[in-house]
Design goal:
The structure is a homodimer. Chain A is about 45% helix and about 15% strand. Chain A is an alpha/beta fold and about 350 residues long. Chains A and B meet through helix 8 and helix 9 of A and helix 8 and helix 9 of B.
Amino acid sequence: MAELVKVVVDAMGGDNAPVEPVKAAVEAVKERKDILVFLTGQRPVIEKELARYEGYSKKRIQIVEASEVIETAEPPVNAIRKKKDSSIVVGLNLVKKQEADAFVSSGSTGAVLVGGQVLVGRSKGVERPPLAPLIPTLKGVSLLVDCGANVDARPSHLVQFAKMGSIYMENVLGVKNPKVAIVNNGAEEEKGNALVKATFPLLKECKGINFIGSIEARDIPEGLADVIVCEAFVGNVILKLYEGVGGALVRKIKAGMMTSLRSKIGALLVKPALKATLKDFDASEYGGAPLLGLKGLVVKTHGSAKAVEIKHAIFQCVQFKHQRINEKIAEHILEQEKQE
Amino acid sequence: MAELVKVVVDAMGGDNAPVEPVKAAVEAVKERKDILVFLTGQRPVIEKELARYEGYSKKRIQIVEASEVIETAEPPVNAIRKKKDSSIVVGLNLVKKQEADAFVSSGSTGAVLVGGQVLVGRSKGVERPPLAPLIPTLKGVSLLVDCGANVDARPSHLVQFAKMGSIYMENVLGVKNPKVAIVNNGAEEEKGNALVKATFPLLKECKGINFIGSIEARDIPEGLADVIVCEAFVGNVILKLYEGVGGALVRKIKAGMMTSLRSKIGALLVKPALKATLKDFDASEYGGAPLLGLKGLVVKTHGSAKAVEIKHAIFQCVQFKHQRINEKIAEHILEQEKQE
């Protein structure tokens, strides 16, 4: 039997905790035999949730007590420093001590990002670990790096994002020679703000990535690039607007279909097909966003994540571990440093 | 009879020139008696197009010869400087000389922005004239300032954007006490990049605007604010992603409806309702984007604009003129300067 991949799941994080994270853990160990889940959080709460399920391997779900909970609104740096017995800090420490391979949380993005960097730590040479969610496109998915909390990036950060993103897409998603593009306000090389203008020539020269130039926001949903590089403020706008425009349009369409008897009948007939289509294009469907370039794996799932999404994030951790992504990133960054 | 509002339409600008701009001019003067249109461009080309129409007032459409055409790919500063006899330069000069009230073009955004600033000129006190398109929301429309070509803005620019945007929404769209928000990567006051952090307190203190704080990109389509303030790089991403996600989703939905016989029949029934709904949520449907804070009115319509959109932009110019927007902006900015 293959070695167990050990994934910590934050049982107290997110809008649907503890119900959905606990359900995700149960489903994950039921579906795959090579996973062990640590649930961090308040033991009585978790035990009560677990009692609702049966037929799963009790050996492969273990509770690790953490009495405190970090709330979404808390200033992250403070929260990580003060709440040493929170589900996030306890979980990240398991990864730090190499007792677990990965940590998955739907809790405070800021706390997960800060905690990941401070507790698990950056790989040697990595300047800034980016948060890299997958976003749906007409061709499949693209990786958007960075959507993290550290804004005002430098050009060298963006070059590392391009490298780490390429390794991820090639090894986890199986995209051969992934196309890398930088978000810009025009397709021409002379376009851009100061950061993009300074980064563009560095990406052009950068070995080991397949840089295709600028991408305008309009073309992101077309899937013209596999790795979309931008600084975190812009990445945040892209990720959230994807969600916002998609959600608003779907509501608008649903309301539009209720305007006449004719369209109401039509709506009944198209409903199943429409539902499947929209699910395909829902950014929150694509599991979690990894924090790349750390010594262990940290994955942030959406605050409103359901069990199915958290389960996918757990499976993603297995792939990540088997493909040795962190090792590959570390090797790549070190190699680059030697060349310079 | 009310005084004629004189609008220059660039007959050579955009993907659909000269067909759509000329058609727009004809329809505009047919529908309203208070408009005179100057068409700038190559006389034979325009005359040939005009020959296709009848029943319009030939007095209220006048051709102003301009032999050159500025292409979209040309570097804007160069184009404006060198092509003195282009439809854009000739048109903007009519506004400069106060022979016309407004200029509407679907041509090169860069050239229109540069030309507007250089030829028509900024109102006294305006630091940077922003391009401010209307974007559709679930509640109606919001004004997105700035989507122009001048990136890397300063906090004082953003404060002026907020003021000018408020005046526009109040007077042109009739929104009482318009809500102003700044695009941010979180709802909390401590969030933001360096620019947003520096701008936030200035907006809070700013008199005469109804500042409601940060807006996350997710909430823009909800219509939570009437005036959305951001620097141009971010504005460009928002505007183009709106278009991109909307377009991709619609194509995906149409394809999804063709997957089974059941859904195909349903699609036929919902088609009319769906079409009306999607039109409502199409960013390119909302006429043109004014360049605010100039001594005359300059409106940029979408490169792929059809006659109906250009016609709306012409009507928008009439409203803009009647409401004395430029005068109000100039007064407001000067008043503010006196207070400081």
